[in-house]
C-alpha cells in the first residue's frame, strides 16, 4: 500500500497527465486510426463513422471534471445530443462495429445515447430488444453475449460479463431517465425487464463465484479468466441490490480483488478468451484500461458500498499504479503540433498507431485513479490533522452564528454578517455537488477564501469559524501553535512543510490556524521571529491554498499587531475581521434574562445608552498626559511612561468602558452584582441607571489581560479592519420581480446578488433599493424614483 508521500506524489503526476486528456482525444479525431469527430467540432451533415469509438470517447471526455476541461473542450460540449440524434438515424442493420458485432455495438453505444436523447424512442426500444432477444431464443441463457438474433445460432458466442455489464447499464439508465417507459417495458408481455435483470444478476453472481473459486484453488486452470472475474465483480459492485455492507461481503470482495491482482504481470494482464471475432479485424478482447476504469467507477460513488470498495482496494494502490506506469511506458506521442499522447490496444496486429477508443479508455482509467488517489490522500491527511468529531446541524449552527456573531459597535457590520456574505453565501450559491472529486474547486474565482479574525480574548473567534464549517457542512480542521513545534522549535520549518502538504490534499474544508502567534509569546521568541516564520514558512504555502480554491482558511489571533500590514495582499488573506465582544443589545438582553430567571426580578429597565459607554471607552483607551511643566521628556521616558500606564488597572471613574469589553461568560457575575444593588431599590420597576451599572462593573473582577492596554488595543483594532474588494460579497435575495433586477441570478433554487459592497445600503442598482432583512438576506424594493 502506498504511503501518504507516495500517494501525493502519484496524484501530482496524474494531475499533470490528465491535463492532456481533452487535447489528446481531440487531436486523435483529426484522422489517425479512428475518427472521433469532424475537425470543425460538430457533426453537421456528416455521418457518425464509428458508433462504439465515438461513444467511448465522448464518455471519457464528459467524465473529465471541470478543472481538467481545457479550452478545447468547448468543441465537444454540444456533441452528446448531436451524436445521439445521428446514431439513431442509422438503419438497424448498420449498427455494427468493424462490419460485425451488432450486439456489442448496441451495448456500448446505447448508454451515451440514452443519456443525451430527450425521449425513449421506438428505435432505442428496438435496439434493446435486439440485445435481449438471445434470452428468448435460448431459455437457458441468462447472460448477454455476442449473439445477434439475425444470424445463425451456430455463430453465437457464449454470454460474458462484459456484454452483461453494459446491458445492465442500459436498463438502469432507462429506469432512471424514463421511469414510465421502463415500467411499460418491464411488463411480462413486453420486454419483461425486471425479471431479465434479476436473471442477469444471478448469472453474474454465479460467474463471479466460479472465477473466484478457480483463481483461489486452481490458478493454472484453462477456464480461469480474469477479464470475466473483473467484469462480474463490477456487476456485483455496481448493480446488485442484494450487496450489503457486512463482514462476510467484505471478505468476499477482498478475496475477489486478491484473485484479480494475483494475475497481474508486469503491470498489466494477459488476454483471456476473446469476446467475439471481427470479420474485418480479428479477435476482440477486453481492454484492461476499460476494465479497470469501470472497476474504479464502482469505488467512486457516494454511499457505504462504494466506501467499502475504496477500503478493500486501497491495499492494492501500488498495483493500480503499476498499471498506470505500464500505460505511461506504452504511450505514443501524437504528431505535431499536438503535445498529447495516444495508445494502441494491440488487438490488431496490423495496427500500431494510436486508437482513439483505446486512448479514451486509458484516460478514463487515469482520471479514475487520480480521483481515488486523491480520496485516499484526503483521508490520510484528515486522520493526521485535528478534525473535531462533534458537529452541529446546519440550522442549529446558523442560529448560534446569529447569536455569537452579534458584536459590539452599532455603526458597524457585525462579524456574523461578514462571515455570512463573504464565505457562507458564496459557498451556498456555487454549484459544486461532487464532494468525492478531490480536484473540485468549490470556491469561485471572485469569492473570498481566507481571513484573519482578531480581537480581545474570549470573543468566540474559534467558535465562529467552527459554526461556519457546520453551516456549510464542510470538514473542520484546527491547527494550533503546538502543531508547528511538535518536533521541536528548531524543526518548525520542516513541520510546517508537512502540515501544509496535508492541507493541500483537503477540499470542502474549513481550516483555522488558532492563535499561532502564541509561538512568539510562549517560546519567548522576539516579535520579529514570528514575522520571519510567517513570511518564510506560511505565507507562500497559504498562497498555494488560496490559488487552489479548495478550502477556506482563517487565522485567529488576539494580537493583530504581530502581523505585518502587508499581509492582506492578494492571494493570501482576503480580509481582516474584528471579532469584538457581544453587542450592547445582546448584553442587555442577556442581563435582563439573567436578572429575571436567576434573581427573580420580573421587570428591570436598562437606562444606560450605548453612546455613554462608547464615550467612556474612548477615554479609557487614551492615556492622560501628566503635566510635566517645561521640563523636556526623552523618547525613552515617554516609552516607559506609556508602558507603565498600559499595565495599570482601569480608572474607576471610567468603569462603564468595562461593559464594552465584557464577554458572555462574565455577564453572570455582572447580573449577580446588579441584583445585589437592585434589591435596595424600593420603587418598581427596578432601574439600571448609569451609576448603578458603573457600581456593579467596578465590583466585577478584572481578568489578567484587561488593563488599560486592553482598551487602547481594542480602539486600535476597531480601525484595523480591511478587505480585498476584488472579492464579491453575496446576499440571498427576496422580494421584487423574479426577472427585473439586474445582477440578481437564480442558482441552486435561490436568488442571489453579488456585489463589492459591505452592506445592503451600499448597493446601487437604478430603480431599486435593498433593505437588510436578516443575516445575509436582503429584500428588494422599487426605489422612490421608480414608483
Can you give keywords for this protein?
single chain; 787 residues; alpha/beta; Glycosyltransferase; Rossmann fold; 4 domains; 6-stranded mixed sheet; 29 helices; 17 strands; elongated
Number of domains: 4
Cross-sheet strand order for the largest sheet:
6-7-8-5-9-12
Gyration radius, rounded: 34 Å
Identify the overall geometry. Answer: elongated
Helix content: 40-55%
> Gap between N and C termini, in Å?
70 Å
What is the mean predicted local confidence, pLDDT? 87
CATH topology title of the largest domain = Glycosyltransferase
Per CATH, the class of the largest domain reads Mainly Alpha
Architecture of the largest domain, CATH level 2?
Alpha/alpha barrel
Regions with little confidence, pLDDT below 50 for 5+ residues: 31-45, 520-525
Main beta-sheet annotation = 6 strands, mixed
Beta-sheet strand percentage?
5-15%
Number of helices: 29
Structural class: alpha/beta
**Number of extended strands:** 17
Amino acid at each position: 500500500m502506498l504511503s501518504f508521500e507516495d500517494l501525493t506524489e502519484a496524484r501530482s503526476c496524474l494531475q499533470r497527465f490528465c491535463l492532456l486528456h481533452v487535447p489528446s482525444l481531440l487531436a486523435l479525431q483529426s484522422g489517425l486510426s479512428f475518427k472521433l469527430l469532424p475537425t470543425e467540432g460538430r457533426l453537421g451533415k456528416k455521418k457518425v463513422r464509428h458508433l462504439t469509438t465515438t461513444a467511448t470517447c465522448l464518455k471519457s471526455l464528459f467524465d473529465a471534471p471541470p478543472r481538467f476541461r481545457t479550452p478545447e473542450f468547448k468543441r465537444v460540449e454540444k456533441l452528446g445530443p448531436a451524436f445521439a440524434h445521428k446514431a439513431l438515424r442509422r438503419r438497424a442493420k448498420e449498427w455494427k462495429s468493424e462490419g460485425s458485432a451488432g450486439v456489442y455495438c448496441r451495448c456500448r453505444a446505447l448508454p451515451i445515447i440514452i443519456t443525451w436523447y430527450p425521449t425513449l424512442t421506438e428505435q432505442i426500444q428496438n435496439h434493446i430488444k435486439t440485445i435481449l432477444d438471445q434470452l428468448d431464443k435460448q431459455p437457458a441463457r441468462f447472460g448477454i453475449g455476442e449473439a445477434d438474433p439475425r444470424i445463425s445460432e451456430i455463430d453465437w458466442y457464449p454470454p460474458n460479463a462484459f456484454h452483461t455489464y453494459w446491458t445492465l447499464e442500459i436498463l438502469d439508465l432507462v429506469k432512471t431517465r424514463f421511469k414510465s417507459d421502463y415500467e411499460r417495458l418491464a411488463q411480462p408481455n413486453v420486454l419483461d425487464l425486471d425479471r431479465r435483470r434479476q436473471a442477469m444478476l444471478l448469472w453474474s453472481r454465479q460467474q463471479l463465484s466460479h472465477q473466484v473459486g478457480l483463481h483461489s484453488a486452481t490458478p493454472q486452470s484453462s477456464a480461469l479468466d480474469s477479464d470475466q472475474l473483473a467484469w462480474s465483480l463490477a456487476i456485483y459492485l455496481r448493480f446488485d441490490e442484494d450487496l450489503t455492507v457486512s463482514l462476510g461481503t467484505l471478505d468476499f470482495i477482498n478475496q475477489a480483488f486478491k484473485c484479480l491482482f494475483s494475475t497481474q504481470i508486469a503491470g498489466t494482464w494477459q488476454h483471456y478468451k476473446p469476446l467475439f471475432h471481427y470479420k474485418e479485424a480479428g479477435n476482440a478482447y477486453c481492454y484492461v484500461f476499460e476494465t479497470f476504469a469501470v472497476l474504479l467507477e464502482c469505488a467512486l460513488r457516494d454511499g457505504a458500498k462504494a466506501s467499502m470498495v475504496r477500503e478493500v482496494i486501497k491495499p492494492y494502490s501500488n498495483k493500480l499504479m503499476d498499471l498506470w506506469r505500464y500505460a505511461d511506458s506504452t504511450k505514443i506521442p501524437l504528431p505535431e503540433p499536438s503535445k498529447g499522447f495516444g495508445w494502441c490496444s494491440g488487438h490488431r496486429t496490423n495496427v500500431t498507431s494510436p486508437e482513439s477508443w483505446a486512448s479514451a479508455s486509458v484516460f478514463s482509467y487515469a482520471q479514475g485513479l487520480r480521483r481515488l488517489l486523491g480520496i485516499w490522500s484526503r483521508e490520510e491527511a484528515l486522520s493526521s490533522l485535528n478534525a473535531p468529531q462533534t458537529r452541529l446541524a446546519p440550522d442549529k449552527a446558523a442560529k448560534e452564528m446569529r447569536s455569537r456573531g452579534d458584536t459590539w459597535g452599532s455603526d458597524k457590520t457585525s462579524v456574523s454578517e461578514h462571515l455570512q456574505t463573504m464565505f457562507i453565501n458564496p459557498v451556498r450559491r456555487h454549484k459544486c455537488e461532487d464532494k468525492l472529486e478531490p480536484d473540485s474547486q468549490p470556491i469561485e474565482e471572485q469569492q473570498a477564501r481566507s481571513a484573519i479574525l482578531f480581537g480581545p480574548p474570549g470573543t468566540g473567534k474559534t467558535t465562529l469559524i467552527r459554526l461556519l464549517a457546520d453551516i456549510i457542512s464542510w470538514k473542520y480542521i484546527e491547527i494550533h501553535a503546538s502543531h508547528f513545534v511538535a518536533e521541536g522549535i528548531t524543526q518548525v520549518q520542516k513541520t510546517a512543510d508537512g502540515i501544509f502538504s496535508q492541507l493541500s490534499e483537503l477540499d470542502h474544508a474549513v481550516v483555522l490556524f488558532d492563535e499561532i502567534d502564541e509561538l512568539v509569546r510562549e517560546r519567548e521568541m522576539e516579535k520579529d521571529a514570528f514575522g520571519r516564520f510567517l513570511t518564510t514558512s506560511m505565507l507562500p504555502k497559504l498562497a498555494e491554498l488560496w490559488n487552489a480554491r479548495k478550502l477556506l482558511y482563517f487565522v485567529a489571533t488576539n494580537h493583530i499587531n504581530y502581523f505585518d500590514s502587508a499581509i492582506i495582499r492578494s492571494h493570501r488573506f482576503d480580509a481582516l475581521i474584528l471579532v469584538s465582544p457581544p453587542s450592547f443589545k445582546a448584553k442587555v438582553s442577556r442581563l435582563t434574562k439573567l436578572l429575571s430567571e436567576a434573581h427573580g426580578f420580573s421587570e428591570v429597565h436598562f437606562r444606560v445608552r450605548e453612546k455613554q459607554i462608547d464615550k467612556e471607552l474612548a477615554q479609557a483607551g487614551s492615556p492622560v498626559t501628566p503635566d510635566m511643566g517645561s521640563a523636556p521628556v526623552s523618547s525613552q521616558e515617554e516609552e516607559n511612561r506609556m508602558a507603565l500606564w498600559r499595565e495599570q488597572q482601569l480608572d474607576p471613574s471610567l468603569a462603564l468602558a468595562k461593559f464594552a469589553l465584557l464577554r458572555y461568560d462574565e455577564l453572570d457575575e455582572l447580573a449577580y452584582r446588579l441584583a445585589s444593588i437592585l434589591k435596595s431599590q424600593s420603587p418598581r420597576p427596578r432601574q439600571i441607571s448609569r451609576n448603578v451599572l458603573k457600581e456593579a462593573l467596578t465590583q466585577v473582577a478584572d481578568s489578567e489581560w484587561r488593563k488599560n492596554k486592553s482598551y487602547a488595543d481594542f480602539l486600535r483594532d476597531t480601525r484595523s479592519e480591511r478587505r480585498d474588494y476584488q472579492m464579491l460579497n453575496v446576499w440571498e435575495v427576496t422580494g421584487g420581480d423574479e426577472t427585473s433586477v439586474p445582477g440578481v441570478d437564480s442558482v441552486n433554487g435561490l436568488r442571489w446578488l453579488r456585489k463589492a459592497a459591505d452592506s445592503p445600503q451600499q448597493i446601487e442598482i437604478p430603480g431599486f433599493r435593498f433593505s437588510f432583512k436578516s443575516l445575509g438576506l436582503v429584500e428588494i424594493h422599487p426605489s422612490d424614483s421608480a414608483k
